[in-house]
What does this fold into?
Amino acid sequence: MSYEDVFAAWSADPEGFWLRAAEDVAWFEPPKTAHETGKGWFPDGKVNACHAAVDAHVEAGYGGQVAIYYDSPVTSTKRQITYGELQRDVSAFAAGLSELGVGQGGRVLIYMPMIPEAVVAMLATARLGAIHSVVFGGFAARELAKRVDDFAPDVLVTASCGIEPNRKIPYLPLVDEALAMSAHPPAKVIIKQRPEQDVAIRPGRDLDYEEIIAQGGTTPCTPCPSTDPLYVLYTSGTTGAPKGVVRDIGSYVTALKWSMSHIYSAQPGETYWAASDIGWVVGHSYIVYGPLVNCCATVLYEGKPVGTPDAGAMWRVIEEYNVTVAFTAPTAVRAIKREDPSASHVGKYDLRQLRYLFLAGERADPDTVEWVADALKVPVIDHWWQTELGWPALSAFPGLGDTKVHIGAAGRPVPGYAFDILDEDAKPVPRGESGAIVIRMPLPPGAMTGLWNSPGRFEEQYLSHFPGYYLTGDAGFMDEDGFVFVMGRTDDVMNVAGHRLSTGAIEEVIAAHPAVAECAVVGAADDLKGQVPVAFVVLKADVVVTETLEQELIISVRQEVGAVASFKRVYRSSALPKTRSGKILRKTIRSLVDDKPFDVPATIDNADAIDAVRDAITPTPRSS
Ligand code: COA
Ligand code: AMP
It folds into this structure.
């Protein structure tokens, strides 16, 4: 069937479409009902994500097939884990969690680097019908504490350290600091001791990961209502308070399974590699659950696209594990291109089995797409989605034999998603004209079911702006052929090297400095990372300001938000442009930093503040 036929089949009968898709997943009780308002998708199905991702394949005779290739250039380690071995470890770890009192609906927070034990912890939690929340290892103590407070985990699973190319990151001091700040610290902490760093176990609180595995316990998969939560994944909004996106079980695995074959064209038994991190949604969906539910091998790569050891690292991994479908962020390609502009590393590897490279996480600029398509000689497919949606919403469809792309566009709507582009009065704009990108409700299987701990906040944040529609927060346009061009966020969320970060989280840290009266952080355009945060600070009149203020602020953000914020630029300004009601005009400031034209609302007179920001950016000419 063509893309058009499949889309038409979904439009004509969405419920029948998804009930048929659900047949490809291993259920304990297959759903008979597709959707019920107020309950969600597949309300009468019983399922377990670990069973669908692991046990079902072992039961079908694939226990000897590789499930995970762990490749860690930063520790010079490689390991293969079969589905049978994964099932054994997951079952043993689930037994350990169960002994600690984690059961159906229990909560496990996972703060770990890219090691197989992190995947084991996720699947073991799912096995028990408990809920996991993975926190990206690049976040520092304060960000971790916010998530601990909101999620209130029963158990926290961590490792003795993370490893970046230029340094080791001891996790325990960060965990201890976060738990000390937190109002709901978990009673138990499980630690995977890595050979690179051994940490002292705190008696009474800490347990050793390996000891739990060595006990060799076994636990069956708990059959759960399909609508039960599988995980909470925190993502950045405009404010400093992260939003806990809740995902259910059965609809998620159904959507992932459908996408693995119909979008990515990945066949069971092949290796599929998403070069991301388990701390992000791409990692949840396409390092862990998607490839495993599809009985593929997945690659857990603990390294960078450049520098570990060179700009050929991605091509090496693709060759070594016979990757047929790969997925990365445009930033990674830009980093490779910058180091190896002639793509000389590509020729060193046999990449004949690679069929497609998918890109997502940030806008893919046409130069980057063309460069990598030319280097790899395979279709390069930009596709678009968000933490909230859980799986692609705009794409091309190799699995349906359709690789059509329009350069600069993120693809056409995935069946399940009805897109519109609206103006501020909620009227659809003509094709080719820009507006807010929205999706008609209800959202398909796999999309968020709500925000953790925040009844009503999902409706308020995503559904109230345009009644009947989900607000993506992105702006763009649709061309005559239905391809959607995503041009950027309409809110103050930044996208730094494919990582979604909140301006508010950085502002909170800066505003806490005793010399700062007010501040604004904006995402400035950056050739490598897409955007990087830049801060403008207005200082208090009555304080003595040290020469090192900027450095102090940079260090604070690094220590409190994390190095991943890539925060390196602070400007002192005497004022900030604002609306009449006192809201800082971040869009105007961003345009000034990027040297782009902008409109100032006609009602306000901000000329002085705009000049102040301009002066702050412009280097002062030195007198000779
Ligand atoms: N734990 C601790 N620190 C981390 C970290 C982690 N998991 N991930 C990143 N950091 C640190 C880095 O070490 C770096 O620290 P530094 O300032 O001391 O050098 C800082 O955070 C910024 O990291 P990063 O944005 O990764 O920049 P980089 O300069 O180290 O690498 C790229 C640049 C392009 C290679 C890198 O950004 C990259 O691989 N991008 C692709 C992103 C991606 O896959 N995103 C997933 C979205 S789907
Ligand atoms: P995240 O929730 O971290 O996946 O970030 C989602 C946001 O990243 C989207 O709302 C977009 O702003 C941006 N994004 C992701 N993929 C793309 C893409 N292919 N093109 C443009 N922007 C993208």
Remarks:
- The chain has a mean pLDDT of 95.
